Every structure is written in C-alpha cells, then in structure tokens.
Amino acid sequence: MRRRIRAATALAALLALTGCGIQETDVIEAGGPATLDVLPAREHRMMAFFLSPDGLLVPSPRAVDTAAWNGAVGPQPGTVTEPPSTAKTVAALLAGPNAAEQRAGLSNAPSLPGPSTAAETEVSGGTARLTLDAPLAPLTRTARQQLVCTVAYAESDNGGVPVVLVGTDGARPAETCDNGARRPAPTATPSETG
Amino acid sequence: VIRRRTGAAAPDRRIAPFGLRTRLVLAFLLVAAVSAGTTATLTYREARNAVLASAQDTAVASFREQVETLAPELPMEPELLREYLFVIASKSKPHPWVVFAEYGSLRVSSGTNPASTVITPDLRRMTLARSRGSFQRVVSDGVPYLTVGVPVLVRTGPGSSMPSGLVLFAVMRMTDEEANVDALVTAARDGALPGLAVALIPALIAARGVLRPVRQLRRAARSMGSGRLDTRIPVRGSDELADLARTFNESAGQLERSVDELQQAEARARRFASDVSHELRTPLAGMLAVTEVLDEDAGGLDPDTARAVRLISAETGKLAVLVEDLMEISRFDARAAELNTDEVDVGETVRKTLDHRRWGERVRTDLPDGIRARLDPRRFDVVVANLVGNALRHGSEPVTVRLSVQGELLVIDVADSGPGIRPEVLPHIFERFYKADAARTRSAGSGLGLAITQENVRLHGGTIRAANGPDGGAVLTVEIPLHGPAGSQEATA
Questions:
Q1: Which residues in chain B have their CB less than 8 angstroms from residue A21's CB?
Q2: How far apart, in whole angstroms, are the C-alpha atoms of residue B344 and residue B334?
Q3: Candidate from B30, B133, B165 with C-beta closest to A58
Q4: pLDDT tens digits for range B63-85
Q5: CA end-to-end span of chain B, whole Å?
Q6: Alpha helix (H) residue ranges in B69-174
Q7: pTM of the model
Q8: Using a CB-CB distance cutoff of 8 angstroms, which residues of chain B are in contact with residue A23?
Q9: Buried b (16+ CB within 10 A) or exposed e, B196-227
C-alpha cells in the first residue's frame, strides 16, 4: 500500500515537473526554403561558384556587361541577348571573386589553376567537357566542384549536366554539381541540355 | 465470544487515525488528485503545444513568405540588404521579430547587432546545410524566443533551384505565448483544486454509506452482548454490508432460539425439582407425624426394633429438612423468593436466633447494642443459623459470632476454631451439594445450607465469602447493606 502511494506521488510529481512554461526545443525542420528569383535575370548573368568561409559552394550571379566582354555595344532594350559562353564563365571563375564578392568573404579554392589558364568547353551526348591547360591532380574536391558547377550551370539551367574534366594529365570521370540543388526528375535533364 | 467483542469495542468511540472513513476519503482524494492532475496536465500540455505550434507555424510561414518577396542582387551591398531586412521586420507576424542575414562572411540585421546571440550553432548549421526551413525554441535569460532559419534558394528553372548561400534568420520573443501558457497553468490548477474539493463530497457520502451499517452492527453486537438477544439490524440494499447485516440477523436469531431452548430446559428442570419437592412434602408430613408417635413409643419396644424406629425417625427428619431446602432453593431459582424487610436491632435478632436454637452456651458472641438495619428477619435468621450451625457441625468450638458496621455495611463474622477449610475447597463451598470430602457421602446437613445462605445474602444485596482465620479456623463473612438492598434488587424481588 505504502509503495503504491509512493509510486503515485512520484507519478504526480513527474507529471507536474514535465513542463510548466515554454521549454527549449531541438532544431525542428519546418517547411521548405524560400525560393526566389535573383537579380540579374538568367539571360543577363553568368554564374561562377565560389567558396564561402564555411566551405559551401555559393553561386555568384554577375550581370553580363556585353560591352566589357565583347567590346561591342551593350544589349539594347527589346533585343534578345545570349548568355555569355561557358568558356568565358570559366575564365571569370578562374579570375577570382570581384570586389563585392571578396567583401562578402567569397574566395576560390587555393588549388584552382591561375587566371591565365586556357579553358575550352564542348557538349556532346548530354555531357559537358572542360579542357584545362593545367594538371588536374593537385585539384581538391571543392576546387573540382567549383569548376563542375560553373560549367554545369553555364551549359544548362538547372545544372544537371555531368561534366568531364580534362587536364594536361588526362581526363577524370564525369562529375555532377553537388551543391544541394533541387532538380526535376533526371529523365528531363538531357532535353534541357544543348 | 460476545463478551470479548463488547470488551474490545469499548474504546472505539474516538476517531481512529486510519479508520475506514479516513482511508476511504484518502482513497477518493488520491483518485481525484491523480485523475484531475493527469487530465489537467495532459490538457495543459496539449493546449500549450497548440498555442506554441500555432505561433511557430504562423511565424515560419509568414517569415518564408516575406523572404520570398525579395529579389536580391547577389552578392548584396550590406546597406541594401539591411533595407530589405527592415521591410521583412516591419511585416512581422504574429509578433515583432528581428531579422538576421548571412551571406558568406557578411552579417547584417534589422536590429542593433549584426549577429544574434540567441541563434544556436545547431540551427545555423542545419539551415546552411539543408535546403529546408527550420525553427528552434530557445530560452535565453528566462525569456523564450522562437528562432527561425530560412535558406534562400535561387530559382534556376521550372522546378529547379539551388542554394544561394544567403540565409535569413528571424528571432521572435514569445512573450504572449508565455503569458498564455502561464494562464493555462493557472487554469489547470484552478480547475484541479475545486475538483479535489468536490471529490471530498462523494468521499464523505461513500464513507457514511459504509460506516453507518458498520456502526449499527457494532451497536447491535454490543446490545446482544449485554443480553438483548432480540436485537436486529435493518437490512438496506443488496450490497456486501447488507449481506453482513442479514447474516448477523440470522445468527442472532439462531442464538436467540438456542438460548430460549436452554432457558426453557433449565426452567423445566427447575420446575421439576420444585414439583418433586412439593410432591414429597405431603407424604413426608404424614411420615413425620407417624415417626413422632413411633419415637414416643420406642421405649416400649425391644432394643433392636427401637433402634431401627429411631433411625427411620431421624432420617425422615433429615429428608424433611432436605425437601424444605430444595423448595427454598427452587423458589430462589424461580426468583419467587420475597424479601420482607423490617427495621430491626441486629444484635437482638442474632441473640434470638442463638437462643432459639439453644446454642447460647456453645457460641461466643460480640454483639454491640444499637446496630439497626433494614432486613428480612426470617431470612436473616436462616443466614445466621446456617452459618453457626455449619461452624458447630464442621469446625470445632468455640464458635464466635461478631457483629460490626463498616461504613454502610453490616458485617457479620462467624469463626470456628477448627482446622479451617482446605484452600482447594474454598471456592466451592457455596455450591449446591458440594462435598468437601468425596469419601464422606453422607453428612449431617442437606448439602444446601451454604447455597441457601448465599442466596439469602444476595437477596439482601450483600455478599458472603469464606476464608481461613489467622489461627486456622474458618471465617465466613457476610456483608449486608444497612439500609436494605438497592432499588434494582427490590424490583426483581
């Protein structure tokens, strides 16, 4: 009898203790992210992937100043502008973050080849190919991902294209951009490329 | 058994600390407390969680909605980003929040500090690593905060997007929710405590329902123990207590019947003894008359016949005494003995008794004059005569009769100078036909003398006891109230 009373008292005390007031919680996932369009619009930008201080791949959309790139007149209102070529985007990546990007703490992986490295791209059979005039062996995984993601997003809207890196020391197996992006089902990917 | 039961029941007038009532009330209260407490706690928890969930969901959804209205240029100028954050902060819902933004090493907020002290590294890591919104409740300095982290994704095409590296956090104080939750605690407590008080009422009613039959049972048992065998309990309802009451009534009925039968058997036996002695008296009277004549004529008979005649005469006389004693005893048994009291001088009465029996020379007396008492002279005469006769017969002379007054009691001591009474015999000498010596089956007396003496003393409301004096002789002491028996004895007489 006494033991039962003690158990009941303990239960009551336990119930009373488990939380008056507002308790702390762990981190709880709630809903999706905020998805939005970033300026400049897709047609007027090129996207290089730099590294944040946390080591994450961060896209940096840059407005394309056609005049700066081609030495010609800038896009006129009403005219359709083509996005800059993939080779130019890679060149911009290798050139490193600009002032605004540096202010935000973005940087290149140290193992990336320098700004003057020649780069060529071609697309065949749903796979992009980036040929660099530099050895690939010193490149770290993050450095390779910077290149892969930059090429993949330059060649396709959603960055789903596999990219084969070719260096002076030979080709590497195809890689895809692994930046936590959401993409539609893979079957749709080949039709997007081109 | 009944006697013991009443003896044990005597001290239970007080309220036992763990009696039935206390236990029942405690059990009720415990059940009520546990159920009220559990209900209140569960309700409170549900309500609290609902309050918090509602606030959290609203905050997370509206924060994400606000963030999605942005169309930032990346990487942003800190001043421009700050402008955006002010816009989001101005549309806080449900409570004002402070917005923090992170992009690379950039830290901007709508508040005074660019970085929050409340946002935990866990939330930051989760928000950065996963493309999903998250929230966390944090209590900092006793103030509950809701922290919400939403990563910004860049739309890269229909249905596709990628992390932009921009992460926004909102920090909202949950003061209102805290107030609501506190109100819930108060409400739960205010609901549970009256519940306990209300539970006291059925507890007391139930205790009463159990205790009343128990109390009746106790009263009935005590009443039966004191001899009222016709006591019954009212049987109410059909529960276990009613069963108990019914069983009690049945047992009481059986007990009453058994006792009735015993009493009737005893009454029949008494009546038989009385009838027998009555029937014997008439022929004995005739025989006594004849033996007197025979005694007178015995001198003229030859010696053998004369001895036989005298023996018959003596035995007939004893038989007559025995029959008289038997009749007297049966009158006592039938409670038909009457006490005819009179105010008398006790010393005078004793002296008369001794003179009448011609014992004056054989008995030493100490009879102070002027002791007056209210008693039945005839019965008192029988008492004194029996005691002195007994002393003369079984003890040895000198026999002393001493009269004294102790308080309200008249005390008569009759002492002999014999060897006294053996201790093992002492308790039995007032029993009927008790023989102190088993071998001596025939004695001079009827065997009823002391029994009749005791009955007479009792009729006077007095007591008689036997003991051995310091010199070895037996001392029989009679104590009788000076002013007659108490009212109760007069009523039964």
A1: 144, 178, 181-182, 185
A2: 28
A3: B165
A4: 888 888 877 777 778 888 888 88
A5: 30
A6: 78-90, 121-129
A7: 0.56
A8: 137, 139
A9: eeebeeebeeebeebbebeebeeebbbbbbee
